[in-house]
Amino acid sequence: MVKIVLPDENILEIPKDSTVRDVAKLISERLAEAALAAKVNGELVDLFYELDEDAKLEILTEKSEEVLHVLNHSGAHIMAGAVVDLFPDAKPTIGPSIDPVGFYYDFYIEKPFTQEDLEKIQKRVEEAIAENTAFVREEVPIDKAIKYYEKEEENKFKVEILKETNVDTVSFYSHGNGSFKDLCRGPHIPSTARIKAIKILNVSSAFWRGDANREYLQRVYGVAFLSKKDLRKHLLMLEEAKKRDHRKLGRQLDLFDTADEWGPGMPLIFPKGETVLDVMRKFWRTEHKKAGYDFIQTPHIYKENVWQTSGHTEYFLENMFPVDLRGEQWYVKPMNCPGHMMIYNRKSHSYRELPIRLAEMGTVYRYELSGVLHGLFRIRSITQDDAHLFMLPDQLEDEIVGVIRMTELFYKTFGFTEWEYFVSTKPEKAIGKSEGWDHATQALMRALERENLPYKVKEGEGAFYGPKIDVDLKDALGRKWQLATIQVDFNLPDRFDITYIGEDGQKHRPFVIHRTIYGATERFLAILVEHYAGKFPIWLSPIQAVVIPITDNHIEYANEIVKILQEVGIRVEADLSGDRMEYKIRHATMQKVPYIINVGEKEIETQTIAVRSRGNKVEYGVLVNDFITIVLEQIQNYE
Questions:
Q1: Phi, psi at residue 33, to the nearest 5°?
Q2: At 327, phi and psi to the nearest 5?
Q3: What value does the mean pLDDT take over residues 260-264?
Q4: Is 184 a catalytic residue?
Q5: What is the pTM of this model?
Q6: Whether residue 386 lies in the annotated active site
Q7: 515 noted as active-site residue
């Protein structure tokens, strides 16, 4: 018999090797019917997973958030089967579910898929769902699996995956008549009909393993839901997201561009984009100065020995840019952390000096595979708002609270209203002492509880070097973005021998927190563009007002207004082009400028301005000082 602990802390004793479905039936037939998947000790499994030892068990139904991941993973499997049915020469490669919802599957096929092909795939997927056949799992020895893909399927991609797998057995899943089976860890839903709504969305090109030097693939995207209503809602969101695409708006608003010709993943930030980033930096610096942070600057490149000390050459080498300097091996920095450790270590520190908070807006460079690059969301040159906090063990909780409060302030100020906290705990493989992990994990949880903030626990999902808090932000469309991280680090303090002198006169290891709030400033800018659909609040707008003279006779007065507004700190420009006034107004509107100011003969006579605000509301006879008062108040209030 084994003991199973349920979410309500009740304990069931069941025969060893009972399945999750057996336990669901034991609880109630109704639960067994509603069950779609489960979590065993925090890990997702399907219903025929066998319980061979004591465990914590949570059975997932339609009401469980995690079940969408399983549903979409199953959707990818069904779609792959449909593609192989329709296109026997297609070679499936990998097909994961993706965040926040959806899936894709990559196929190697000679002829690219057309829209007509996608319609055929959609129809075949719907037929497979209607057939309501069970997903069947099969455990296969690794050598037999390799032979299957070499001889029967002639799929070199699956063979490559298998030959890199260091296990004795792997799992396959099949559905329908079993003609299509796929190498897969699972889990999957019990049967195809449990997917109530599915949509094949589009197809794009991709490269095997994201490497432009490897095979060219077709990536088919889809999404699965538990109801048609949820699918319709999601499709409407996707249509709105297209309109807000930061890549399109970035060019339209003259903010940035990410074209590949000068270097994939290396964006160019234009003056207006830099203005927004500068506003973000100034706000960041002001708030960090208030919170007692010291600002530092570290180099963009170090000799190899620095990265050997930090462990990057051992664990992160494939993501680093190497530089050969006259026979010496250097690397462009993928992280700011080593420099922060070295600055802390420049002198001895007493326990009386702690906490020490070091902050830097530092640009790092990571070699992301070309297949995963995406606008400013995924780039190779990344400016991170990094900070490292060095503290005594009993200061840890207070320092975490300080970071949480700053995070809350930032997101509220930038106009967001919803975010979630997640605490990731010790993984199976970890460094550091157990008591240190326990102390750090409890400090993270207590800090959130002190602030009355709900959180979810991700069991075993911490980094090998420490537990952490992650913050997922929701934008105007309800999409989630993982941004802030509050990471306790047991690795670098050891590698760089970070110490302080304690009350006993001996050296001790401080606790170290590595944290970001924006995450990456470029990515945060892209999120802001899509969140506001390009209509930045006034305090963030790169241009806060445009002055448009009605005729050339009014240019001198327009320039006077520009000078007055600039002197008080309002970001303003005049449109002195030869275009008609109506076109100038349309252009400023397309640029989503908060205020359009018209000046003509009447405004010169009365020494006033005509102000057009967003929504085309026009107010005439506005005194310049009154306009200044309104705008400066909006800027001060972060409106």
A1: -70, -35
A2: 90, -10
A3: 79
A4: no
A5: 0.86
A6: yes
A7: no
State pLDDT tens for residues 115-152: 999 999 999 999 999 999 999 999 999 999 999 999 99
Residue 384 is a catalytic residue: yes
Annotated catalytic residue within 69, 175, 194, 468 = 468
Residue 287 identity? E
Positive or negative, the Cα torsion across 12, 18, 24, 28? negative
Q: Which of 218, 384, 544, 591 is catalytic?
A: 384
Provide the Cα torsion 78, 80, 81, 84; round to 10°: 160
- Check 175, 199, 288, 337 and give the catalytic one: 337
pLDDT digits (tens, 9 = 90+) for 408-425: 999 999 999 999 999 999
The string over 318-338, giving b where at least 16 C-beta atoms fall within 10 Å of a residue's C-beta and e elsewhere, is: eebeeeeeeeeebbbbbbbbb
Residue 439 falls in the annotated catalytic set: no
pLDDT of 291-344, one tens digit each? 999 999 999 999 999 999 998 998 889 899 999 988 899 999 999 999 999 999
How many CB atoms lie under 10 A from the CB of residue 364?
19
Long-range contacts of 475-479 (CB under 8 A, 24+ apart): 475/416, 475/527, 475/530, 475/531, 476/530, 476/531, 476/532, 476/533, 477/237, 477/240, 477/241, 477/244, 477/530, 478/237, 479/100, 479/237, 479/241
What's the maximum distance between 2 C-alpha atoms anywhere in the chain?
94
Structural domains of the chain sorted by starting position, each given as residue range(s) with its CATH number in brackets: 2-60 (3.10.20.30), 67-241 (3.30.980.10), 257-298+336-531 (3.30.930.10), 545-636 (3.40.50.800)
What crossing angle do the helices spanning 434-450 and 396-413 adopt, rounded to 10°? 40
Give yes or no: 300 in active site. Answer: no
Tokens encoding 245: 């695409």
**DSSP code at position 135:** P
List 288, 366, 515, 554, catalytic entry? 366
Known catalytic residue at 612: no
Rounded distance between C-alpha atoms, residue 433 and residue 426, angstroms: 11
Options 333, 514, 554, 592, the catalytic residue: 514
Q: Which of 199, 388, 439, 495 is catalytic?
A: 388
